[in-house]
Protein 1
Amino acid sequence: MGQQEKQSIVSIIGSVLVIGFYSLYVYRNYIQADMGLLNDFQFWGKSFLYLIPVAIVVQIVIQILFAIGNRIITQEDISDITDERDKLIELKSIRISHWIFTAGFMLAMGSLAMGMKPYVMFLTLISSGFVASLASEVAKIIYYRRGA
Amino acid sequence: MVDAKVIISNNIRRLRFFAGEMTQQELADKTGVTRQTIVAIENGKYFPSLELAFRLAHTFNVQLSEVFAYYPENDPVHKKLKDKQTKKGKQ
């Protein structure tokens, strides 16, 4: 398995951990105590804004730990070269995640149009962002295995 | 004789051998790409840009045609264009 594939797998694990623990934390500390928060726009705004930096920091920490672990196990440094193939695969995977997020956004707006509660829209947005990021990493693994 | 599915083949493995059994990593370092990219090119899974193709040829000090070979008879686009021209010719 190539280094990029390993990094994608680590990234998927990181995303799952972040969204899993963050959702659990928000649910236990806020939603469980007051279900009315689900329809509070300020609550959703804060949840989104806190999630983004938390996700970035956790991903960085996980990637650093992976680099250290990889160095110890394989005695190889992670290459800092990004060549044309890496860029092509990055573009292709971003395109996939873009389409998935766009579909999720349409679904989220559709839920509002159909008169559903606002929390359905916010949950659909978060879910589509999460699925889009997973799809991007899975696509990378597939492209790296296929060649490009 | 090449496989009927092969549109572009390459001689990188052979050229590496004649360059003193140059490793894939050495070739990657000399051309500014990752070893995985060299592996993908060698296995015919990835077709490099013209720039990288020339860089590879330059590294081995050979002409581009010695590194890559094109088989138009296996290229579906070439076949399609040829069929179109034949039809036009008949009209």
Protein 2
Amino acid sequence: MAQKLKRDLTVQEQLARGPLDMPFLMLVTLLTIIGVIMVFSASYPVALTEDKNPTFYFIRQLFFGGAGLVFMWVISKINYQRFRWMSMGVLAVSIVLLVLVLIPGIGVEVKKARRWIRAIGPLPQFQPSEVAKVGVIMYFASRLSKRNTETPRTISPRSYLSGPYNYLQRIGFLELIPYGAILGVIVLLMMKEPHMSGTILILLGGAAVLFAAGIKLYWFAAGGALMGALLLLMMSGYQSTRVQVWRDPWAYYKTGEGFQIVQSLYAIGSGGLLGVGLGKSRQKFSFLPEPENDFIFPIVCEELGLVGAGIILFLFALLIIRGFWIAIHARDRFGALLVVGIITLLAGQVFLNIAVVTNLIPTTGISLPFFSYGGTALMIQLAEMGMVLSVSRQIPAAKQG
Amino acid sequence: MKNDKRRQKPDRKANRTILMRTLFLMAVCGVAAFIPLFARLYDLQILQHDDLQARALSQQTYDQPVTANRGYIYDNEGEPLAMSAEAYYIQLSPRQIKECQEAYQKKVEDAVKSGDESKKPAYPEPTDQSIAEHLAEILDLDPEAILKRLSKTNSMYEVIKTQVEEEEADQVRTYISQNGLTSGIYIMPSTKRYYPYASLAAQVIGWVNYSENHGAYGVEAIYDDELGGKVGRVVTARDGRGNQMLYRYEDYVDGVDGNNLHLTINATIQHYCERILEEGVEKYEVQDGGFVIAMEPKTGAILAWANSPTYDLNKPRTIIDSGLNQRLEEIMNDPALTEQEKSDASVALLMEQWMNKAITSTYEPGSTFKSVVLAAALEEGVVNENTTFTCGGSVMVKGYDEPIKCSNRSGHGTQTLAQAVANSCNPAFIDIGQRLGAEKFYDYLEAFGFTERTGIDMQGEPRPSDILLWPRDRFTNVDLAVASFGQRFQVTPIQMLTAAAAVINGGYLMKPYVVENITDSSGTILQHTEPTVVRQVISEETSQRCRAILEGVVKPPGTGKQAYQAGYRIGGKTGSSQTIKGKDHTIVSFLGFAPADDPQIVVLLAYDSPKPTEPGGNLTSGQWYISGGSMAAPQAGKLLADILDYMGVAKQYTEEEKATMDLPVPNVLGLSLADATASLKEAGLDVRTVGDGEVVTGQIPGQGMAIPGGSKVIVYLGEEKPTDKVVVPDVVSTGMNRTQAQEAMANAGLYLKVSGLATGDDVKAESQTITAGTEVERGTVVEVHFIESTATGGAETGL
């Protein structure tokens, strides 16, 4: 397709060709590079014990990182207004995938949970919940951005239902029904896997968009109370041991439940101020389980110390703040809500991962964006960043002095 | 338009809401969320850094001790008494063994899957059962116990046997390499202690507790720091599966071998002491063992220190003494005892054999103590060689209602000082004590070291406060009277010996010691013990006078005459005393030294409780009279002769002794009768001729044979020398005295060699070296041991 000349472009198209937000792009690229390097350091002992080439994980992560950055750039070129209509599709696909993953043969069972759809043809193995996260945020953002332009559906005042109907309308319940239904279906499907941490993240992403869109605060209070009640309910049985382990991991060291978190604390504590040096972690040698994955950050802490870990935290903070800056300056509400959803999700993931590995909260399996090993997760993460960059292109230029 | 206007207002409001809420999210996600994270990292990485790092390091490193070789222990001539050699301990890692087993099963599965039988491991499956059985067989262990260890699959270190010899270790090595268990069973180096002389000086040397590698008893314990050396370490990195990562980092601290001890103990003298002690224990049916200490009087160096019962240092937990074994059996067969009581009682028996009773237990010194009283009295000048004492068989002491009896109930009559000592006369010593007075007497108790520790480098010397001795302010006249002949108070044997050494060595109380030198592994002397004079108690002159008087004790009719050995000037003092166990528990002892003019050695020998035939009896079933004079003295005499011989102390014969000495027979063949007679006379021998020729054609005994001096050499002048055998006569069962025995032997054509109590009239043959009835060649020398025929003394008399 031949490139259109600038004068032939519509206003919209012209806007979509605006400049990328350079700070955001730089931060993403930097974090991805650091992440891939850390995967190399953390994963080679794992690869060795699995009788693989020491660079097995690194090469893969490097490939996906590179491909992901390209993918991000490609997505950033897409006029994000198209995401409005795409969102329906993404959401529908992700729900279908969430159903498919439950079917044995398509879903891979790991540790009694079906979270992965196995590699089919050229497609690598991936988690449909990653897609669902994007789907929920995109759909919610697109629908909520039109919230105040929608004419409220009316009902005949003569109908006997008009009283309660109007009441529900007034308190904003009716408009929440579609969102609640979508989230409900997804949560149900994901709890079937089961996938606790993924569920939390999707709820977080959805809630962030709803929150930013201006949904009345008491709904969040109600939602929060509901979640809290559910959590308390689940704290019986397996979940309650989880809390016990969290409170005193050393007491559960021998039985195995506290092993990973104790090893994680050893790794972080060993790092000290300056760390033992890049590549010199000792905890990655079969002490700390999953050092290349959910527990990569302790290895970062051990090798680079408080200084290195602090710098990485700072980069994440900058990225998040810059993300919200883009949201604030976005050309329209859809852009703003989309970015808010994506960035809040990112921030939630960073917070939860680091809080888990430092035993600030009970253990749950959440990977660290840009760092944890996982090709498809990294690709989807970078794709989301691409969406943010796409929004950033259409930020109106500051008025000339 | 109207419609638009209406929508514009809430629109702006909605935008504002979005902006505010986005800003709120930005603050929470971009700033607030990072504060607890960073704070937590600061807490872990800075505040808890040391603790967490230490914990992490302990799991990340493999700290292997490099055992240092324990130093050797040598006797005073460099003979090793304790040695270290390489040994191993066998360690299992049940966790890794489980991994090995899983790996084996996987290999078999793979082989089955691929259908390639050759891929199967060449060895049978290493099940727990088979591992336990194989190791149990090689190491002589109980397979059940190994199985129990193997079931601890979380454990990495299970030591199943220590002190494994090279040979067994090799077998284990072969087994594990052939069964794919190289990363599950480990052979770790360590050291093992060997005692080449087994039980020799067991209580002095002590043994090493292998589980801790520290000395448990004796010098092994006291000098543990010197002997132990410094254990080195190899610190290597290891991964979470316990595999060493030698390429990661390694830290090596070299072990330093322990230093060597050179004892003052002489293995040969020690051996003599133990032999004499053991012989007496058997002969006299001694119930509670005994001890011998031999000391160099001038330095305080301990030459030998024997205890009975004893044990094998290589197997300290095994009872080898027959008496103790009998008691163990009684305990084990006693149905009234619980298992716990049985085990406690058997531990008590072990303690008894480990204990060095010559230092840890006190005893009543009895008459041996009179030597000390004698020295004090002479030094103070309250008596001299011309003082006479009268003994009426008993004496009354002020403050005591009963008369105090002497050993000789009818009394010794009037005696000189030397005679009073030789008779061990109690009334005479009560008199001497009274002349000294309580104050002076107590001063000498202190001066001779009875109120303090000797300070010897041995374990278990009791504190002075634990020793039963009167405090000075409660030392009454009656106490003084009984103390004068060594009764009613307790001392340790080493105190008694040290004090006695001071009496005879010129008056110097020495600090006894057992370690002469400490050397490092290259032989450099690190520490040398110089003889230490604690104080001079009496003058050289007094000491010399004491020696002369004490030498008289070993001459007839002295109580110690059975310690007499021809050619050796032995001095000493006998002793018998009741133990705290009461009647029928008598310690018979002898304190001896030689040569009397220049003492080279002083010994204290004691037997604790020879068994009388009946309660209150004075005789053992072997017809031995229970007293120091008839039991300890002859044993000590033999011991001193052996030791002096070994030490190369020249014999000094008196004229009387020379008459009965063994002399070599010169060659007189071919000589004229006159020349032969002269030659034999010169050699101190007599002649008896057979035949009437001019020239000697034969002689009995032949050249070089040693026969007692004055014996007749049979010279054949032309007549055929008879070659028939003769029968040895019986001199023992009839209890012949020396003259009778001499005659009997001469009649049979044999020569008599006298041993034991050679001089004096009241002797009888106790044993002969060649059994009666044996056919031997003419002129053979038969040695006959004589003892005194009438016994004197006993427990009550303190003789």
Protein 3
Amino acid sequence: MLHTNETILLNQLKKGERKAFDQLYERYWLLCCEAAYKRLSNQEQAEDIVQNIFVRLWINRATLDISNIHNYLMVAVRNGVLDYYKQHKHATVFQENFDEMLSETAMPDNILDAKELMELTYAFGETLPAKRKKIFLLHICGKYSTSEIAVRLKLSQKTVQNQIRTSLIELKERIALFLF
Amino acid sequence: MSKPEYREDFNQLIERYLEGKASETEKKFVEKYYQSFEKRTGIYNQLSDAEKEAAGRNLKAKIDASIDGNSNKKVFFLKSTLFFAVSAAASIIFILAGGYYIFNSKFSAKVIPVQLTAKHVNKEDILPGVKKATLTLDGGENIVLDSAQNGILARQGNTAITNINGALSYTGKNDGPVRYNTLTTQKGQQYPLTLSDGTEIFLDASTSIRFPVAFSGNDREVTINGRAYFHVAENKAMPFYVIKGDRKVRVYGTQFNVSAYDNEKDIKVTLVQGSVQVSNGKKATMITPGQQAVLSIGNEDIKVIEHADVEQAIAWKNGIISMHHADMSDILKEIERWYDVEVVVNGALPHKDFYFSVSRNVNLTDLLRIFEIYHIKYKIDAQNRKLTVNP
């Protein structure tokens, strides 16, 4: 139902019906603003990005080929955030979070987050050129030993091993493969 | 194993992603990294339905204004906020400052990860500052400003004073006698201002700026008490001066931050772009971008910090509380100003080196988690706006 509705709205938007545009705004502004805010921690910047997106949506309505407005907007917010970051690198939470991710003290207070952080850190390591990757994996990913996670999260090593076994073992194997 | 060395990799990665040149592995990381923010607490879900509606309406009004004012053009439209007045040149300075981190071991301190989750407003919490100020007209009349009023507030001679979307601006030419207005922010307030020559000034909390409604004569002079970020419109024929007592900053078309609070012994001028001359009545010196001039009371020498922490000096303007190698008294002063609280300290403050950044939008209890990390006890009395610290 919702889907059909949106197909109709998108068609109307293409034809230049402002009411369809208004309805799409009503449905999605909050989702867009919240998504941008989560990355920037600044309401004004978040809203500026969303303003930009909706203005462009209207201006380019005739030429845009959107099949799924939700996906379109989410990708637009992502690009808006990344583009904002590109312009204002050192003063954003987007980068601070990256620094924190690599810092020695970064350790979320639950296993799921720890696992995610670990995977994310590893995914970054993967993007580095060979030599730097080696150093990165040794020094940064090296902090994720099961015993250390267990101590920091005040859990038994057994629990940690069981819960994040797969990713950690996989990670270690890949590091080992890479190093030797 | 310093982390900042990976920043450049990260930044390049984002640029490649935006240009569509990223590899699959790189795309995967960027998208995963972006996604990892999803579980954070947002801000809109904490607003009441009425506030949410108002936010949605305001944004829609801006969108409509952009569309209807630009219906004939293709994709160009003006960004409205002062935040975006920071030009590309300013970003270059940020990058230089970043480079400095890499080479100076002093900055390899650990970043304290502050998990700002589960944010909720309770009775014992204090909200951050807001966009608000008081304008005092030439005749002494006071007008309280916020984002609510839109349109022309008053006229002073040939100058019109308008307040649109929470930004005050002056337009018009001088006609005869010079009239002065004063814009004042209390604790917990900030406000943007555009002077009649196009100069943009962003006032932080507890700040006042006195300025002519229109400039005439050979100079443009404004006086300051507090902290503000300046983006001065270039006019070689009329130099711009920022004045506090006998301390003076002469500006040659540029962007810089001035921190000149009465309760702080130093006046700090941090240059982002262009060039300025600072003087204290006895001595004068020029500074270049990335430098900070420090004028201390009772010291006629002007200290120039060669590689200043520009990022920290202007973080407030970008909505961030940034403390790099700060001690507790600095942090408490900042809290007093931005959260409009009285701070009471029982006992001696420990000598600790704080290093963190958090959004200026967080509630006081969230900010004070920094103290929890350091095992510093505190109590908030929200009703009397009082923060008691027991180090």
